[in-house]
From TrEMBL:
Gene from which this protein is expressed: argS
Location of this chain's protein in the cell: Cytoplasm
EC number(s) reported in the record: 6.1.1.19
Gene Ontology cellular component terms for the protein in this record: cytoplasm
Quaternary structure note: Monomer.
DALR anticodon binding domain: residues covered: 452-566
Keyword DNA repair: no
Classification of source organism: Bacteria, Pseudomonadati, Campylobacterota, Epsilonproteobacteria, Campylobacterales
NCBIfam families per UniProt: argS
Protein name listed in UniProt: Arginine--tRNA ligase
Domain Arginyl tRNA synthetase N-terminal: 1-86
UniProt organism field: uncultured Sulfurovum sp
Protein family: Belongs to the class-I aminoacyl-tRNA synthetase family.
Amino acid sequence: MKIKSELSKIIESALINADINAEEIVISDATKPEFGDYQYNGVMKLAKQLKKNPREIATQVLAEIDTTGMISKVEVAGPGFINIWLNNEWLSEQTIAILDDTRVGVGQVEKAQKVVVDYSGPNMAKQMHVGHLRSSIIGDTLSTLLEFLGEEVIRQNHIGDWGTQFGMLIAYLEEQNTDGNTQELKDLEQFYKDAKVRFDESEDFANKAREYVVKIQGGDEHCLTLWQSFINASLGHCEDVYKKLNVNLTREDVRAESFYNDQLPQVIETLKEKGISRVSDGAECVFLEGSDVPIIIQKGDGGYLYATTDLAALNFRDKELNADRICYVVDARQAQHFKQVFSIAKQAGMVKDEVALEHIGFGTMMGQGGKPFKTREGGTPKLVDLLEEAVVRAKDAIKDRDVRSEEELDAVAKAIGIGAVKYADLSISRESNYIFNWDKMLSFEGNTSLYMQYAYARIQSILRKHNAEVTGSIIVADEVEHRLALMLLKFEDTLTKAAIEATPHTITSYLYDVVTVFMKFYELNPILRDDIDEATRNSRLQLATLTAAVIEKGLSILGIEVVEKI
RNA sequence: GCACCUGUGGCUCAAUUGGAUAGAGCAUCAGACUUCGGAUCUGAGGGUUAGAGGUUCGAGUCCUCUCAGGUGUACCA
């Protein structure tokens, strides 16, 4: 239900009837319950343009507002706000209409955009660590969200599979293989360290490593085979993490750095031809306006840099993938890099003007005390370990709650533990740094996934207890039911906003509001108690059912599972 | 040096992009139970939005300066 755009239409025709021109009509949520459900604040701006008294204009507009359908009441307040109340019967009709809808009232976009979402992008030389967490889950949520709204999403996992360190790694892999020991790749971190030790201790090995770098680049079959098997193993590690994390990235989504290798000379050629780049100190450089430091696109020795690869990728995404919107879910510290690369790509016509290029930046994950996240030993924690710890902690938190089988406990612990890690991350506004805190994320209180999952389980418990078909209508009878029904109908507006701005926390804070209102409703309005008449009971049961559906769908967009019992 | 980002109750975060008296959760204190799952709910205290100017009907949000912290910045990605 697109409530805001429905209201915009009503206000628009009121403005037309009042003989007033307005370009864009923005409806916002009321800031307080006394001010109604929604408000239109545009009159003040219009009054300024028309040089008239805002309250006078507001009164004129007010007289033209149609209050026969969704709106029950309107008023002029303050300097010229128009406050809007929605009709309870309208809320009843709308909520009952979406009760059997698997999309809980969320429509699909009329014209699908092609959206490329570039996220995760792990480096194949190393094990995934906590630094990859945010990109992976924010990007995945964004993808799921856009897909749900009907956009055509093309996921791109731009893995780092190219560079000098691979010479060392495959040389070491070869050495290990001849010993018949292929298990070494279990721990990439260790493998890397061991290879580095060999590199430092043996001149022969170091030379071989350097030689292998050149050979891979030259297309040497033996080396490429080694390289490929290394990448396969490393990618396998990533896939384990994705599976644990409930992140939807597959091999089909992998478009590695190396994929763009043969397009790099063309990128340089194009930039040279268009006069965008020039040689400086032996390197091919682009000097952007307002900056005296160049962006190097080709080193003095002929090698390419990541800006070059990114340009090739942009070109590919525009020309081959035909993207309308390209989102890079990458650490906020790379803001400048993307600004530059986007600017060059547009100047050079590698990306059409109308294509939206967005850097979806996010802040750094911090440990306690706001310092960089480290293990007790001072290293960077591996993502697998972190996720395993989350599940163990979740299990510990719920093990005394209820008698159940070990399998059940494991499944619930997994949903809760992983959900906690993801929710904690997604519920903070993307751009700010975020402080990782186990106790907070695994709390039943406050804005946590566990609180949402708990609310869902409670509703399921009520429905199980009732154990019968629920029919009849939803009667929005009092203030709290009004708020709950309206909240449930706001789902689509919320998702739309989150998709446009790429802000998952919009969804979490909405879900938190839904659950808070539901908890109030639940305290004030008993459902199954004996003295409740059947019509009321059915109405309340249906509101509860719909609430559960919104929670379930909302969490699933965040890649978080619900459980029937906690 | 230059550029960008951040600064909101004790702590962790919001604030619909310039709207009404800046909202939540932790924590603190005070209440509610013969519990439809109390790991819940109700209420209270706690703020000069780092500071100073400015723009206007109206500023946490925009502009200028100052302070504090962070990040990036020529051949890594």
